[in-house]
Amino acid sequence: MTTELSLFPNEPPAAAGATPLAHRLRPETLDEFFGQEQLLGPGKPLRAAIESGSVSSMVLWGPPGCGKTTLARLLARYTDKEFVNFSAVTEGVPRVREIIREAEQRRRVEGKGTILFCDEIHRFNRAQQDAFLPSVEAGVITLIGATTENPSFELNSALLSRLRVFVLEPLSADAIRAIVVRGWQKLAPDGPEPPPLADDALDLLVRHADGDARRALNATEALHRDVTRTRRGAEPEPVTAAHVSAVLERRIAQYDKSGEQHYNVISALHKAVRGSDVEGALYWFARMVEGGEDMLYIARRVVRMATEDIGLADPRALSITLAAKDAYDFLGSPEGELAIAEAIVYLAAAPKSNKVYAAWGAAQQAARDYPAEPVPLHIRNAPTGLMKDLGYGGGYRYDHAEGGHAAGQEYLPDALRGAKWYEPADAGYEKTLAERLAWWAKQKVNARSGGAE
C-alpha cells in the first residue's frame, strides 16, 4: 500500500492557508490512506468490502487522530449510496429521525441507499442509540459509527450486535514522522520556504503527537507559523528541538479517568507492582496522576495490592499503604503524592504472595458449597443452662490450659474436616509462618495423642 498523502485537488489556492493542514492532507483514496494496514492492507476484509461497495453497518473504534473520520469519508467514495454526516455531540435524536425519513424517501423514489456516519457515537446514551435500531435492521441506513471509547461499555447490546467492530490503532512513530515531513513540505506554498527540520526537532514533534496525526499536523502548522514570523529575512537555519519545545503546548497525558484508559492504566500499575517492576509501577502511577485521577482511588487500589499480592509475605506492606493514604489525606497534592509513590515502590520491591488471597477465596467457596453445616457442639456458645444441658460447649478444651497451648481439637464442621486452604509461600515472612504452622500442627498431634492415652 502506498503511503502517499494528497491534497484535495479542487481546493482553491486562496483557501489553502485558511484550511487546517490536517484537513488539507486528508487522503482521497484508500491507496493514499496512511496506516491501519491491519484493516486496509491488500486482501484485508475491510478493504475488500470497501472496494466492492458492499459496506455493512460498523463501528470504527480508535484513539484520536488515527483516521476514523477520514476512513468513513473514503467509504462514501467507493459506494453509490448517499453519505450523510452526523455528530452526536451537536445534534440529537430529532435530526436522526429526519435523516431516516429522508433515507426512506430516497430508497423509495431513487432506489438509492444511505450511509449515516455518526461521529462520537458514544455521546448518545443507550436510549438515544435505540433510534438507529429499526432503520439499521430494515436496511434503510448503513450506520458507520466512530468512537474513541470501548464499544462494549458505550453502546447498548442491541445496537452493538448489529455492528461490526473495527479497531484502529494509534499511528506508529514512523507513520507520524512521514506525515510531519510531508506536512512541513506542503506548508511551503503558504509563505517563504521553511527551514529544514533538524532530526531532534522531528523526533520531538513525533513524541508530542502520541500516535495522533491531527495533533502532529496541528503542531507542525503552529511551528511553521512561528518560524516564518520570527525568522523573516533570516538565514534558513534548521529548526531544532529547542524551538519546537518553545512552541508546543504542555503535553496532556492520554488518560480518561471515566473510560477504558482508567481501567487499562490501573491494571498496568497493579501488574507492574505484582511483577516487582519499580519503574513500570512509577510510570503508570505518574500517568494516572497526570491524567487527573482521583488520588484516593489510587490509594485504595494500592492498599488492595498490599493485601492481594504481598499479603503475609511482608505484613508491613498493609501498614505502609494505609499510612501513605493517611499522609495524602494530610498533605494533599502534590506533596502527598510522594507518599503514595513510596508505598508503590515498597510494594514493588516486597516479597510477593497471594496465598492468603487464594485461601480466602477457597474459604468463601466452601461457605457457599456448605452453607448450613452445624457448628460442632464443643465449640458452641453456652450462655444458658438449657444450652449446656443440650451439649453446647461440652468437651471443649481450653487451649491455654493445655501443654504447648494446643488442645488439638477440631474447629471445622464434620463435612470439611481436613480441609487445607492456606499454604504459606517459601518467601518473606510467610516462610516464618510456614514454620510456625508446622510447629502448631505438631503440637496438636501431640495433644491428641496425649488425650488418647
> What kind of sheet is the major sheet?
5 strands, parallel
Number of strands: 5
Order of helices and strands: HHHEHEHEHHEHHEHHHHHHHHHHHH
Rg calculated over all Cα atoms? 33 Å
Count of DSSP helices? Answer: 21
Brief description of this entry?
The protein is built from 21 helices and five strands.
What is the secondary structure topology, with strand pairs?
Blueprint: H1 21-24, H2 37-40, H3 45-52, E1 58-61, H4 68-77, E2 82-87, H5 93-109, E3 114-119, H6 126-129, H7 133-138, E4 141-147, H8 151-154, H9 157-160, E5 164-167, H10 173-186, H11 199-209, H12 213-230, H13 241-247, H14 260-274, H15 278-290, H16 295-310, H17 316-331, H18 335-349, H19 355-369, H20 385-389, H21 428-452
Parallel strand pairs: 1-4, 1-5, 2-3, 3-4
Question: Could you characterize what this model shows?
Answer:
This protein has 21 helices and five strands. The chain has 453 residues and is mainly α. Helix 5 (93-109) links the parallel strand 2 (82-87) and strand 3. The longest helix is centred in the C-terminal third of the chain and has 25 residues, at 428-452. The model is unreliable at 1-17 (pLDDT under 50).
